[in-house]
Specification:
alpha+beta; 10-stranded antiparallel β-sheet
Amino acid sequence: MPRTQKRVKKFEKRLANNVTHKTGNFFRSIGGFFVKVFKVFDSKLTIMVVPHSHGKVINFQTNVFALLLGLLLSIGVISSFFYFNRSSVSSKIEISNLMNQNRETLASLDQLRDENANLFKAAKRFQTSLSQSLSLLGIQQVDSKSDTSLSNSDLSSLFSTKEITTGSARELADIKELTSYLESAVDPIEQIGKMIKTQQSLFTEIPSICPIRSPNLHISMAFGPNMHPLNNQWYIHKGIDFSTYRSGDPVMATASGQIVNVGYDSNFGNFVIIKHNHGIYTRYAHLSTYRVKKGQLVEQGYVIGYVGNTGISTGPHLHYEVHIGSDVVDPAKYVNIKLTK
């Protein structure tokens, strides 16, 4: 037993010596490696600058470590220069794109402001026309003005507002004013629509439309005193002459009614006479042809014939008359005619 213990102790002592020896050798090897590396980096170098001329030779001493460090620093500086130069070019391109977008946005904003100005000009004309129409129809326009709101049902406040705001804030306030006015105008316009709907039959019973629809339509002779085109003497023209510079354009019934006479007259040429309600008659003369017959019922807008040059006429046109009972009246009073003579 004592011999076994002695053997174990000897073994442990040898093992400890071996570990200590190997560990020492390892650290000595590492130390030797670093010493060699340090000696390499600490190696002295002499750099000489020899000019081509007979000038003084410049030399300076350094070591490998300083040379490598300087080389790394130089590479880092050059790399940084190229990196930041590239970033600068990218930034300039982006700034240029942003400036172009800004110019386009400003141009669009100018166009928007111009359209906004045109919108308010149209709104002002709309206000005037609507106010006149409401006055003629006897409809009272609602004036909903509030102290706590920019809204006003009358556009007059919009166009007389003091210029206390500028830029987009002013335009936004104007749009709010316009929106408020249009909202308040809905009710009177609906009233006009209801009134027209209830009176729809009346509008079809009176000669309220133009007998010819054409972009070339004009008045060649108005109602009333005129110079006769053939004898050059003054006479009373009992109708309106419509011309389109050509024959064949459709002629429509200006109101619903019944055909009471069709035929040919040496003065009026081919003609049609329609009887309407409320004692109203209309005559359509100088037609090239007519496409209705006596006793036929026609609706407003129905084509009864075509523009011609029959009878006593100096060119293709329609002679149109309106009679109330035994009186001949100016057709322009029943039709909103604003055509060039």
